[in-house]
Amino acid sequence: MAKLLDQKKSIFISGAASGIGMETAKKMLDRGWIVGSYDIVPTEWHHDLDLDEDQLITGHLDVRNFEDWENALKDFTSHTGGKLNAFFNNAGVIVDGRIEDQDPDRIQWLVDINCVGVSYGAKACHPYLKKTKDSVMVSMGSASAIFGQPEISTYSASKFYVKGLTEALSLEWAKDKIRVHDLAPLWAKTKVSEVNARSIRTLGVHLEPSDVAEVAQKVFADPNFYDKLRVHHGVSTTDKVLKSLADFSPDILRRTITKILTG
Q1: Given its phi and psi angles, is residue 181 left (phi above 0), alpha (psi -120 to 50 degrees) or beta?
Q2: Which stretch of DSSP H or E encloses residue 140?
Q3: In the chain, which residues have pLDDT < 70?
Q4: What b/e readout covers 105-127, taking b as 16+ CB neighbours within 10 angstroms?
Q5: Which of 62, 65, 153, 197 has its CA 20 to 30 A from that of 112?
């Protein structure tokens, strides 16, 4: 068993009970990885799958609680010989509406999960990633961090936080030989897209969770040279084009484009 654990790679995924986390977990299981699916709700999608014993480890995780992170990682790595090759910092929520109409408690809830939770995840996983060769962390970003989005302002701002944290840690963790990336797709068909936002009405929701998971698993397990160097990863042609335009556009132009797309 110890030899088998040494040969298998492992990935811990937060918010993996559904959506993009679930689809990424399935793809990594298909690759033969040991997968940790941890969420605030039980993981139930695996019951009909034909898996090897101890290939999928499930457990409870409230990302707002740092002790929960420590306990979840201790539990998961007890099944992997102490190794952690990859971490998908995936859990996230959304609040919609104009800022003056958003419930203060819901704003706090969003920030605690999307910002504090992502930071807790990075901090808790670092010791495990640091001692594993060629390790990687990917966080769930969003194309809404290209330019702030109306009617989902707090969500959009939280994804700017993820973008900034990713960039900072890509430098901070370089000495530890940990690759750090984020995914920045447009809307995918998950609970996050079940909101009233202008960009949904104008751009639509065309991505499936599996489309995002396909890019995620490539960054984790099969990156080319350029993928390793690139910090932010788009998913669709549209979000890649929008990001490229934004990278070389002044604020006034980015604001105008965003206004047109969300008007």
Answers
A1: beta
A2: strand 135-140
A3: 1-7, 263
A4: eeeeebbbbbbbbbbbbbebbbe
A5: 197
Put the strands of the sheet holding 34-39 in their side by side order: 56-60, 34-39, 10-14, 86-89, 135-140, 178-183, 232-233
Q: 29-47 pLDDT, tens per residue?
A: 999 999 999 999 999 999 8
HSE of 250, CA atoms in CB hemisphere, 13 A = 1
pLDDT at position 2: 43
Q: Report which secondary-structure segment, H or E, holds 245.
A: helix 237-247
Which residues share a beta bridge with 235?
none
CATH H superfamily, domain 7-262: NAD(P)-binding Rossmann-like Domain (3.40.50.720)
Give me the residue spans of the domains in the chain.
7-262
Q: Which two tokens stand for residue 232?
A: 């932010």
What is the rounded distance in angstroms from the CA atom of residue 19 to the CA atom of residue 57?
18
**Encoded amino acid at 173, one letter:** W
User: For the chain, give me the number of helices (H) and strands (E)?
Assistant: 11, 7
Give residue 256's region: left, alpha or beta (phi > 0; psi -120 to 50): alpha
Looking at residue 205, what is its pLDDT? 85
SS3 139: strand
Q: How many CB atoms lie within 10 A of CB 250?
A: 8
pTM over 0.85: yes
Predicted pLDDT of residue 263: 63
Write the CB contacts of 239 (distance below 8 Å, at least 6 apart in sequence): 143, 184, 185, 186
Question: Phi first, then psi: what are they for 96, rounded to 5°?
Answer: -115, 175
